[in-house]
Amino acid sequence: MNMNDIIIKKRDGGVLSKEEIQYFVTGYTKGEIPDYQASALLMAIYFKGMDKEETYALTTAMRDSGDIVDLSAIKGVKVDKHSTGGVGDKTTLIVGPMAAACGVPIAKMSGRGLGFTGGTVDKMESIPGFKTTLEEQEFMDLVNKNGISVIGQTGSIAPADKKIYALRDVTGTVENLSLITSSVMSKKLASGSDAIVLDVKCGDGAFMENLEEARQLGQLMVEIGNSDGKRTIAVITDMDQPLGRAVGNSLEVIEAIETLKGNGPADITRLSETLAGIMVYAGGKADSPEQGHEMAKESLRNGSALEKMRLFIQGQGGDPAILEDTTLFPQHTFAVEVTSPSDGFIEKIRARQVGVASQHAGAGRATKDDVIDMAAGIYLNKKVGDAVLEGELLATVYGNDEAKAAAAAKDLEAAYEISDTKTEPRPLIKEIIG
Ligand code: URA
After folding, report:
1. Which fold has domain 331-419?
2. How far is the centre of ligand 1, averaged over its atoms, from the C-alpha of 114 (Å)?
3. Using one digit for the tens of pLDDT, what is the confidence trace for 361-382?
């Protein structure tokens, strides 16, 4: 077998065999296949696509490139949750404690930010003292004791994805159904859970901008998860404007806590209840997603989800006093306000542009070695459909670098579109697949 023949076969629209796909993944991970040949193959896949069997072969080859986590020492049906990524998406920090409060063990490995905002691990690290790296035994003991632990994904899980994603990121080959599916699902299938709930984002600021593409991605990921014997359910949700009001690490943790207290923004509360409800159903603790939804809502009402958050933070060395006192989080020194240029209604808030603004404020990394400013970010005072007067506050940028905060405020101004007529926000939950 040789790499040039594999590239030519895909370039000409052929179907790759399992062996050819394995040859590529193993050779590239070991450094035996150079970047230029791997790039050429990824571009051929981008244009010619892969069928379901090829995608499954790519996913399993990437899954098997590293460790497969064994969570059998944790009692119960372990349910993982993954979002394809969006701006202001702090749902893991809400649905984890909610599902745990309903009896579903949450043993989750999360990533750092791939794009312009921090990932779940970055957000958790804004909690004073919180450890995101634990020994495997300690991780499992915490889940058995508290019902929840979330740690950073180690480099030994699907190392092929790490290398291939880094190459895709700089060769214009990220936005392809089979490549996204194999990237996400190889990590999920290696992480040891029994069931997987996927939040597939759709709209500006998401990989899939339209509903049809998001549906195809959801369907393919569900088929691949089920082919591997893991119950997989995908929920397609809107990402045309940022989720909730807070974007940026500590700001998002504070909003997650408010949501667990029952005081969160309507969109993030609704999405969290839906996702947690499906997790409760997939974990066998409810007979239907509807019953799961009711149980998830009740966990917010009766305070049990907030109590799980307290145990979760305490278990990983964090200071649970942050639940009552947000001044214990890293603090900002600068706040720049963005005001409305006219009277009207908010027509659009471009999620991608808000993400870029938050990165410029210091909340995300431009390169993998950048250090995140945990206090940096954006608070959106106005959301789509809200009325606004000229000079009224639209949003605030926070950070510790005055020039960066001012630059981010300029980006943010460009994210807002104001019109004379009132627009209703797009439906948040679009479809459930699986
Ligand atoms: N998230 C991933 O982990 N991989 C992708 O390719 C896209 C989103």
Report:
1. Aldehyde Oxidoreductase; domain 3 (3.90.1170)
2. 8
3. 999 887 777 888 999 999 999 9
Q: What ipTM describes this predicted complex?
A: 0.96
Fold (topology level) of 3-49: 1.20.970
Ligand 1 pocket test: which of 174, 186, 191, 221 has the largest number of ligand atoms within 8 Å of its C-beta?
174
Which two structure tokens, joined as six digits, stand for 125? 């690290």
CA dihedral over 186, 190, 195, 200, signed as positive or negative? negative
pLDDT at 272: 97
Residue 64 token pair: 């098997």
Question: How many CB atoms are closer than 10 A to CB 345?
Answer: 17
Q: Which residues contact 423 (CB under 8 A, 6 or more apart)?
A: 345, 346, 347, 348, 384, 385
Distance of CA 184 from the midpoint of ligand 1 (Å): 5
CATH of 79-155+189-323, one of 1.10.287.130, 3.40.50.300, 3.40.600.10, 3.40.1030.10: 3.40.1030.10
Predicted TM-score (pTM) of this structure:
0.94
Ligand 1 probe mutation, 42, 83, 84, 187, most atoms within 8 A of CB: 84
Phi, psi of 384 (to 5 degrees): -55, 130
Residue limits of CATH 1.20.970.10 in the chain:
3-49
Unique residue bearing structure tokens 């990524």: 85
Alpha carbon separation from 240 to 255, 381, 386 (Å, rounded): 19, 17, 15
**Cβ distance 86 to 178 under 8 Å?**
no
Q: What is the DSSP string of 357-380?
A: HHHHHTSS-SSTTPPP-TT-EEEE
Strand order in the sheet with 246-247: 246-247, 377-380, 393-399, 334-339
Task: Compute the C-alpha angle 378/130/300, nearest 5°.
Answer: 65
pLDDT per residue as tens digits for the range 234-256: 999 999 899 999 999 999 999 99
